[in-house]
């Protein structure tokens, strides 16, 4: 089954857990450093994203590897990676691709940015 088939259950992190992780990146040296990848479109990302998240749009899915490879090329395979999308569907495909590349500690944000926003958690926006 292709990685872009965005159905199934994958490990998740809650919005409060991700907020705590993002905040800890400002205060602590974590080795290997966790990576937060927002797989929404560039416009969605620019409108508001989790602090420290980098953007690698999942759309179209067959181009995702070309967008994310430069981001993960120097990341240890054991590093924690959290993938984020709007409603936790596109992130499933991103999760599957990252796992297929040997990354062992990948999770998605449960219920995506919809839950993050419902909880009124802080967002960064591009100017």
TrEMBL record:
Every Rhodanese domain range: 30-125
Superkingdom classification of source: Eukaryota
CDD domains associated with the record: RHOD
A Pfam family that the UniProt record links to this protein: Rhodanese
Protein known as: Rhodanese-like domain-containing protein
